[in-house]
């Protein structure tokens, strides 16, 4: 969609029923019931399979099928509203399967580099975190981290190059001028190798901030 039409589409959506972004059929909800059902098939029965040290990961679904299509639509086809819905799904899963320690972490989305943010128009992790916090009532700190380095696409790199690529990719954001007392829960769209999360965690921990884990909408493979 051209950039100039975006505000008009959002404005129209307030008054009219829109089309499902996947099947194009008219719907009064953001995703039609059929596509919503297909999306729910990706939902993991146990989102806490990877919730263990050294990097506890909480994931709503398995990356693939409809969920893969949905995340691509968010990134490349301007669908911020779907990112918020996925964030709410993630929040509902968090409430149904709460971590044992009962802590109330502060939620920090994995930031995008400002150049990419300008291209895409939004940070999908930020929108997911907003939906997540709306449902869970957890506190959101949008600017806890900032991306100080523009990184290359991870999938094209070897394991060693991935580490190099992400070294010092993040710095502490203006949201943490005063260090938080509660631990942090990072939020991202996809958990793959964990390289991005580890780099973000290293930045926070080097500043004396504790990290509880990562909550992601999708988990790819077994994710190590
Ligand atoms: Zn549909």
Give your account of this protein's structure.
- The protein has 224 residues and is an alpha/beta fold.
- The chain has two domains: 7-40, no CATH class; 45-151 and 158-219, 3-Layer(aba) Sandwich (Rossmann fold).
- The chain is 39% helix and 17% strand.
- The chain is built from eight helices and eight strands, in the order αββαβααβααβαββαβ.
- The strands form three sheets. A four-stranded parallel beta sheet has the order 3-8-7-4. A two-stranded antiparallel sheet has the order 1-2. A two-stranded antiparallel sheet has the order 5-6.
- The longest helix is centred in the middle third of the chain and has 17 residues, at 80-96.
- It is globular.
- The mean pLDDT is 87.
- It binds zinc ion.
- Residues 20, 22-23, 25, 32, 34-35 line the site of zinc ion.
């Amino acid at each position: 969609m051209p950039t100039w039409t975006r505000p008009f589409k959002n404005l129209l959506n307030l008054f009219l029923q829109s089309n499902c972004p996947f099947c194009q059929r008219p719907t009064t909800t953001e995703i039609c019931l059929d596509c919503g059902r297909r999306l729910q098939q990706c939902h993991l029965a146990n989102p806490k399979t990877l919730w263990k040290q050294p990097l506890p990961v909480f994931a709503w679904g398995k990356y693939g099928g409809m969920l893969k299509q949905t995340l691509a639509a968010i990134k490349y086809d301007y669908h911020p509203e779907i990112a918020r819905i996925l964030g709410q799904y993630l929040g509902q899963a968090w409430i149904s399967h709460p971590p044992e320690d009962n802590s109330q972490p502060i939620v920090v989305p994995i930031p995008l580099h400002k150049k990419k943010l300008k291209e895409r128009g939004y940070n999908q992790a930020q929108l997911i975190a907003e939906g997540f916090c709306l449902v869970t009532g957890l506190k959101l700190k949008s600017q806890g981290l900032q991306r100080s380095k523009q990184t290359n696409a991870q999938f094209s790199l070897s394991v060693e190059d991935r580490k190099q690529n992400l070294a010092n990719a993040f710095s502490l954001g203006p949201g943490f001028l005063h260090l938080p007392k509660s631990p942090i829960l990072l939020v991202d769209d996809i958990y793959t190798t964990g390289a991005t999360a580890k780099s973000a965690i290293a930045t926070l921990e080097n500043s004396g901030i504790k990290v509880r884990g990562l909550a992601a909408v999708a988990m790819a493979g077994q994710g190590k």
